[in-house]
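Hi P.,

Sorry for the delay on this. The queue was packed all week, but I finally got your sequence through. Input first:
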Amino acid sequence: MDNATRIMCGTWGEVWLDGEYVGEAYGLQAKVSMNKEDVALCRKMAKDKKTTSISMTGSLKLYKVNSRMAIAIGDKVKKGKDPRFTVISKLDDPDAYGAERILLTNVSFDDLTLADWEAATNGKVEAPFSFTDFEYLDKVEA
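Then the structure:
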């Protein structure tokens, strides 16, 4: 990195849910966690770890503007269905080395906030989720 202007700023982030732009999104996190088991090795006092699987989780942060999530999830789960989605995260800071787009597939939201408000406070909703695959559509390379 040649200077701080190359650091990607979340102000330039965007989200699409099933191909539909989510203008009320103000944050998104998606991460892969390695699930490990202890492995005892002969003649070693320290246990090693072996990755046996991965878990992929995330969270979509939204300003409360509409009932998008209730419409997308609510009626389906009431009928016993397990709705799945695709999410595209895009971060495109004009000072950075390029744009990064990541496709998350088989996204399953963990809960649905029906109401959460407080006087004199802007409405926000956090929607945690899990997913089973991801693909970089665009990568940032210096």
